[in-house]
Amino acid sequence: MPITKFKGTGVALITPFHKDGRIHFKSLENLLEHVITNKVNYLVPLGTTAESATLTKDERSAVLGFVKEINNKRLPIVYGLGGNNTQEIIGQIRNTDFENIDAILSVCPYYNKPTQKGIYQHYKMIAMASPVPVILYNVPGRTGTNMTAETTLALAHDIENIIGIKEASGNLEQCMMILKDRPKDFLVISGDDALTYPLIALGGEGVISVVANALPKEFAEMVRMALQGKYASARDLHFKLMEVIPLLFQEGNPSGIKAALNILGICPDHLRLPLVHVSKTLYNQLSVQLKHITENVSNPG
After folding, report:
1. Of 79, 166, 258, 283, which is the active-site residue?
2. Which residues, in sequence order, are CB contacts of 60 under 8 Å at separation 6+?
3. DSSP letter for each residue of 10-39
4. How does 75-89 read in b/e, with b if 16+ C-beta sit within 10 Å?
5. Which residue among 79, 120, 123, 137 is the active-site one?
6. Active site includes 137?
7. Which residues have a Cβ under 8 Å from the Cβ of 84 and sit 6 or more positions away?
8. Would you call 39 a catalytic residue per the annotation?
9. If residue 201 lies in a helix (H) or strand (E), which one and from where to where?
């Protein structure tokens, strides 16, 4: 499978809810059309930003099927499928219809705090079971365990079905170690919106973005320009987006991005406990910054 389909901007899709907690499929359709028409490169449903931990098995299946239906093969799909029980994930893989799924994104095991050897064996088993390529996902701020550059590189070199990593450690030195010694076709994808520009400048292939739910046109354009080597123009847009990115994560994810989507009229900002709405103060700050960006950020050539 050509890895070029995973270069650029992927969107870590939120899951919209009704006020009573039911999945809001009409809003999910609105969101999908919003990001697809604004030229993102691929879709990532049911990752951590999707509040997957609060979804039942049937709900996950319904969301995945709906995304496939609305997407209608327009963009590649990377399915979020991970956890801290290796055998359970393998069971989920065996029970998943992988038609029109191009890869899976599998988060580093959380809570258990495995050793690096345990992390390696976990991903090896998943890759052996998966009929589609696997993208690793290192996000120690959520999992409690950092997958080191050494472990990432060992997996990259040893296991053909592991094709890349979403790196969200926030540690550029670690990212550079991976970029320096990775196999030729191994993707290094930013998992931190604010660090996407510098990671691409170092040789990374793009981002799986939270911000692109709300601002797909602006964020995808910044990524495209950076990948084309138009660093000055990309940097200008990066700095403009930096005005809103910290606000979106100030009171947690996806609370911030759901507030932004509500402000933009794309979908409501209902969440499932233990997540709650952002404060009124932050909501107002987001309103101001989003208006500024959507009114003043032009589409650079």
Report:
1. 166
2. 46, 52
3. EEE----B-TTS-B-HHHHHHHHHHHHHTT
4. bbbbbbbbbbebeeb
5. 137
6. yes
7. 109, 110, 111, 112
8. no
9. helix 196-201
Please, what's the b/e burial string for 116-137 (b: 16 or more CB within 10 A of its CB; e: otherwise)? eeebbebbbebbebbebbbbbb
H-type alpha helices, 72-195? 86-94, 116-129, 140-143, 149-158, 172-181
CA distance 169 to 150: 14
165: left (phi over 0), alpha (psi -120 to 50) or beta: beta
pLDDT of residue 19: 97
Evaluate whether 108 touches 119 at the Cβ level (below 8 Å): yes
Edge-to-edge strand order for the sheet containing 162-167? 42-44, 8-12, 206-209, 187-190, 162-167, 134-138, 103-107, 78-80
Please report the pLDDT score of residue 1 as a whole number.
52
- pLDDT for res 277: 98
Under CATH, which architecture does the 3-228 domain have? Alpha-Beta Barrel (3.20)
Altogether, the residues listed in the chain come to a count of: 301
Identify the CA nearest to 218 among candidates 277, 289, 137: 289
- With tokens 């509040």, the residue in question is 51
The whole-number mean pLDDT for each consecutive block of 10 residues of the chain, a chain of 301 residues, reads: 86 98 98 98 97 96 98 98 96 96 97 96 98 98 96 98 98 98 97 98 98 98 98 97 96 98 97 98 98 73 40
Going along the chain, which residue ranges are E strands?
Answer: 8-12, 42-44, 78-80, 103-107, 134-138, 162-167, 187-190, 206-209
Does the global pTM surpass 0.85?
A: yes
Count Cβ atoms below 10 Å from residue 140 Cβ, excluding itself: 16
The C-alpha atoms of residue 29 and residue 293 are separated, in whole angstroms, by: 24
Q: And the tokens for 153? A: 């590189």
